Amino acid sequence: MRLIEALYLVFSGTLTAAGLSMVWFAVRAYRNTGRSAMLYLSVGFGLVVAAALGTTLLAFLTGFEQTRSLLTANYLLTTAGYICVMYSIVIRD
User: Fold this and answer.
1) How far is 43 from 37, CA to CA, in rounded Å?
2) Integer Cα distance of 91 and 93 in angstroms
3) What angle do CA 60, 47, 40 make, to 5 degrees?
4) HSE value, Cβ hemisphere, 13 Å, CA-based, for 51
5) What's the Rg (C-alpha) of the chain?
6) Around 46, how many Cα atoms within 13 Å sit in the side-chain half-sphere?
7) Which bin fits 2, alpha (ψ -120 to 50), beta or left (φ > 0)?
8) Nearest-5° Cα angle at 88, 20 to 24
9) 53: three-class secondary structure by DSSP
């Protein structure tokens, strides 16, 4: 494994761990408060984590051959996730 691939794996793992922590915090807040904003926040961070983890796994499985498709899918999921996060900030409960 080359250094750049190892770094990609480390940073993807770090993003996944941090993102799943945020999902857990948001789900816990939703359970405690019942606010739908927390539900949208957890969905948003979940999509961002899914994008990072899915892209990393598929990149290694395909030998980094389908980079355009992988990046397009990554940006689609990440954008949808951040839209949910932004919506959770502006929603009125």
Assistant:
1) 10
2) 6
3) 170
4) 20
5) 15
6) 12
7) beta
8) 20
9) helix
| Domain count within the chain | 1
Residue found by looking up tokens 């789900």 in the block: 27
Enclosing domain of residue 82? 3-90
End-to-end CA gap in the chain: 49
Residues 44-77 have pLDDT tens digits of 999 999 999 999 999 999 999 999 999 999 999 9
pTM (global) more than 0.85: yes
Outline where the chain has alpha helix (H).
Answer: 3-33, 36-61, 67-90
Distances (CA, A) of 82 to 7, 19, 39, 86: 24, 12, 13, 6
Which tokens belong to 29? Answer: 């807040």
